[in-house]
Amino acid sequence: MSALLPIVEQLADAVNHAERAEWLFACPYGVMNREHMSIRVILQRSGLLAGVAYLEAVLSLTNAKRLPDGTLPQTIVLPVHIAALDLRQEAQAGAEGAN
Fold first, then answer.
1. What is the block-wise mean pLDDT of the chain (99 residues), using blocks of 10 residues?
2. Which one, of 42, 67, 65, lies nearest residue 52 by Cα?
3. From 5, 55, 62, 84, which residue has the greatest number of CB atoms within 10 Å?
4. What is the value of pTM for the model shown?
């Protein structure tokens, strides 16, 4: 029996970067916050460095102080979008390299 949550086991069982990226984009922020160390280790071991950067950006977003109107500063939001783009590109490159 694994010590990981079942949802994190799905990430650990992913067979390629495309599956890992899909998991990251669908994962609830609460799970990312709670299990970020396990997720980070899985991503690092798989070599998905863009996934690690995306995880860090999301953690910054979910822990950022919001502005008085309830929105997040663009200095927090923009890095998440950039990291997501980098993650998509790395996952796609890995998928194309597998063909």
1. 87 97 98 98 97 98 97 97 98 72
2. 42
3. 55
4. 0.91
